[in-house]
Amino acid sequence: MLIEFSHRYWSIPKTHFNIMMTTKNKNRSHFFIIVLCWCYCCDSAVVWYHSPQWKVVHAFIPSVSNAKTSLTRAMSLDRWKARGFVPTLGSRMERTLTSREMLPPTNSIAATALSNSQAAVAASMAKKLYPASMIGTLGEAYFRNRKEMGCPRGAVVGYMAQILTILISIPMISIVKSSSPDIHSILQVDWLHFIETVLFWASIHVQCMSFREAVGAVERGDPSLPASALHYKPKTISVLLLFGVTFAIAMGHYFANPSSWQHTELFGGWFNPPTPGRDFRLSGELSLLTWIFHWSMIMDYIMQLRCMWRWGDLTGNEKWKLYTLLHLPACLVNGIVLINHLHRDQIIALRLLHPILVFLGSIATCYGSYVVAHINGWNVVGRNANKTVDGMAYISLGPKDNLPKLIKGSDLSYTFASFAVGSLLAYCSLYLTV
């Protein structure tokens, strides 16, 4: 390539934003957004085609024999043999994980040691695809904010918080991996992975609650939409509170043991439940609290998609259903993350597949949001005032008798139910981790 991908990634957006800053070129900037996305896609496709990653992906796919070995090990009685637990002296927050808790990986598909070449392939793939996926992510954020799309304002705030979490996670992961040569994944620093998970959960939960409140208000026949659907302020306050509490927890864990923060246990181990027959801790294994927020986030994401499908019926814009279906790659990403967490981030094939699906998902959802906005009058070269329609203009408010109900119960009861089910699944995940 004549132009390095990194150079393209950092130099072109700067020029593009300079163009957007001028009022004269406001409508023309929409055209440059599409051109910019196309350049990124073409450049990334060429880089992938000429890269050696695709030639070695098949070498990392687990074989059937390895899968049988992993299953045999998981069902073996020796695996559930009780082992000693030796806490260090000091406060509970300063207690670190000992070598007897952090068992070394064994020879299975879940715990195959990462060679330098395999890790290099995964890192090279991530460096190319993760930055490129931000183009689709930012494009979706732009269309969600357009009034033609008719997206609840609280869901826009939650999506912006999700982008902020991604930007926070990038340096966080880099710091973790560079802090010690023995740390290859953020999963090995459980409290920091817990912070990342809670931030993602907060952004997804805010989006889910915004759609639930908007859909529920229409189904109940309320005279007007809730404030979270019409204004940014309510959910902005919620995001600030959730993020503030999360960062306070992070600072507490770091300053409790600044010299060895990588080995600080989440909340000093106070919330670790008893696990009869499994009294050891594997390296990179998630704690109960981290699993709870992971599972709750998955349930919030599914509920959000159900509400988005319903929102298409209520607004009269059937393209919302297409937009919902285009979230399929993102759903697969969530499944890959859960499976890899159960295997302590050791399956190389999934590590290579993750950035691919993230990129495809960002492009798909960006296109879906564009279609929803375009059907109501948004176009690349500029808006036509006679054809532009507010996405919420066709919502029928007021009493309704025969309208089928999707939203049942209060938002608080739904939140408690998601945490209750998430806790049960999290406890099972402790035993399923291999």
Describe this structure in words.
The longest helix is centred in the middle third of the chain and has 31 residues, at 190-220. The chain is globular, with a radius of gyration of 24 Å. Helix 5 runs parallel beside helix 13 and helix 7 (190-220) packs parallel to helix 10 (288-315). Strands 1-2 form a two-stranded parallel sheet. The protein is mainly α and 434 residues long. 62% of the residues lie in helices and 1% in strands. The chain has helices at 5-20, 28-49, 53-56, 64-75, 116-144, 153-179, 190-220, 227-230, 233-256, 288-315, 319-325, 328-342, 348-374, 411-432; strands at residues 102-103, 281-282. The chain is built from 14 helices and two strands.
